[in-house]
Each structure stands twice: as structure tokens, then as C-alpha cells.
Amino acid sequence: MTSSEALEAAVREARRRAADEAERMLREGAKALRGSPERLGEVEKGLRNEALKAGGSILGQAMALAGNGYEGSRRACACGKTQKYMNDREREVVTLLGVVRLKRSYYWCAACHRAEAPLDVRLQIEGTPFTPGVREMIGRVDAEVAFERGRELMGALANVWVSKRTHEQVAEGIGAEFLPERRPEKRALPANRRAVDQLYLSADGTTAPTLDGWREVKIGAIFEGHRGRDGEPRRDATRYFGDVTDSEAFGERWYQVARSMGLEDAHRVIVLGDGAAWIWNLAELHFPGAIQIVDWFHATERLWIVACACFGEGTPEARAWEKAAEDLLAGGRVERVLRRMARLRPRRAEAKELLREAQGYFRNNAARMRYDRFRRLGLFIGSGVVEAGCKHIVGARLKQSGMRWSHEGLRSILHLRLAVLNGDWPQQRDAA
User: Fold this and answer.
1) What's the CA gap between 160 and 94, in Å, rounded?
2) Do 203 and 217 reside in the same domain of the chain?
């Protein structure tokens, strides 16, 4: 029988079985619901499990009809020698439709002792008991929730039950593929040469718990913007990146991602930050000439800290002083804010230190606080995008109660979350 004839015979048999199964399931479902309509949830779950079982049978037949991967009595080995065909061997594969048994040709190299089943390589199941579909599901779930919760969700919703440890290994393995050092050819992102009105570059740092203590995680957000008809800024495409790394490596990646989003042809480049020196140092190095803006919330927060330290927390005097200083700051009159601070005479040593720090903060960032000019240009003055990214990317997944990550595990799940958030995986995984 030829392969085409075998396929047609299998299709006829599958059609017959499907018809019989469909009739049986319909009769049983209708009978159950006629007698007890409140059993709908139970019936639909039962039908789903039956459908999955039938789908698993069809998938197994389809895989068997695709061949066993036989490539002759001998085949080339990666070591340069020859692999010899030994026999056909069966294995179990966990699919989205259940466990399927698969028979494939098995080869062995006497020189390097490498054993290989060519069909496993072609089906992308070499070295793993899971199909690409199952691995994708594990990755998607574990990018969002803790491994144990992911195990429970997959089991309850997809009837695919695997251990917590397996979830961890698979998800971290997927994430590790996106580590910069694992993909050197992907690190230099191609420059985007299309015109961009406003390109915003923002960065922030947060922390995550590891086995060796808390580690800093740097997160960057780059987004396009434009001025709306009402004169207010509007945010367009956004891309996040990040790593557990030093400022130098982070800055290099910041520049690469910015180039990929139109840095070289942007009409205006704006760097938003909370005032941390490392952000401005990187901005000066990689984005000379960019407009630098201190996040409005952080600036006004400093004013409130000074007001409370000098007049008492929440007092009418504190609110009045802060409101007057904020109005000056909104008008870009940083020097007048500094003069108001200079007239303050706090008594407590702690208040004096807070005032001194605030004066240095506003003095060093005066050029980055011309909010009246920034508003006239229709620019964003807040770094909320990257701060929200820190909370969502790191806080919501990597800082849950009781978590303690290995350095490798932290970086892997971080990059997995970034890949999912940016749309790089799974749809564009090979092109990321």
C-alpha cells in the first residue's frame, strides 16, 4: 500500500469512528441534560475530555502516517563520522490532546556515541517529552503566574497536567533563548529608518529577590509619541526591555532598541527619568542632544517631602507652601523654587538634611524641569510608562511572596515576560 492509499484508508476509518463517537456523545449528552439541565457544566467538561481523546487519536495517526524518519541504513553524524540505523523505537509524547505514542527510526554513532532519532529533530521534540504546542502553553502561562499556579491552570483549563518543576524548567528554558548572550546575532537590532515625530526613552530600576539577596533589575521603555489635535501628547507603539546587569551593558541595549524604533530619524528624542544620575549619564553618552525631562511626579513629590519636613506632615502650612512651589515649578521657574527653599529654617536635623538633598536635586536638574517649555512642545512630562513596566514586568511576577530566584532563573523569566509583552514570542519567535 502506498502512503497516499494508507492516508485515504486512515481517513475513511477516522470518519467512521468520528461519526460513531459523535452519535454516542450526542445521545449521552442529550439524555443527561433532559433529565438534569443543571448538569450542563458537568456534561460540557465530559464532552471536552472525549473530544480531546478523539483528537489525540487522530494526531497520533497523523504523526504515524507522516513516517518514522528512516534515512537509510546509515546517515551522517554531526561529528563527521557515520550513524548506523539500529531499529525503530517507541516513545511517549505529551501533546495538547493527550499522550501519544510515536514510533521512529533510531540511529547510533560508534565514534562519538551519539544517539539520534531524525524524526524527533524534525518534530522539534528532541530531548523533551513535550510537543511545541505544550511548551508554548507552559511558557505563556508561566510568563504570567507562578509555576505552581501555572500547573493548576493548565491542568484545570487544558487537562494537561505536568509537575511544577517541569513548568519551571520549560519556562526558564524558553526565556533563556532570549538572553542577549545566547543570541549574539540578534543583539544588534536593525535600525528603523522611518520618520518618527517623538521618540521617548525612559529607564528605571527596581529589585527582585534572589538566593543571594535582592538584586537590581533595570527596565527600559521606548515609545513613539505625537501631538494630538488638542495639543496634548499621545502615546503610540511601546517596547520594553530590561536585564539584571550593570549600567554600561544596559546603556548599550538601550541604544540598540532605540535605533530599532527610529532613533536616527526621530524629529525629537526625549529622555524621561526620575532624576537618578545613572539615567542621565547614559543619556548623555548614547543620546546626546536629546531633551531630558525629570518626571513631574518625582519632582512634586520632593516638594511635598520638604513641606512636610519643615511645616509638619499634612498641615495647612505644608499644603500651602507645596502648592505655591508647585505652581512655580509648573511654570519652569526652578530658580524661584530654590529661593523659596533657601528661606526655610527647619529646626530638626532630619528636616535640614531632607532640605539639603532637595536643593541639590532641583539645582542639578533645573534644565530638566522647564515644564512650561515641555508642555508648549506637546511633550509628556511623566515617566509613568516605565514605572508601570517595572510593576507589571517585575513586581507582578517576580516579587511574589516567598519567591527566591537563582540569578539564571530570574533573568530567564524576565526575558520571557518581555518577549511575550513585546509580541516577540511565540508568533515572531524566530524573527525576534
Assistant:
1) 8
2) yes
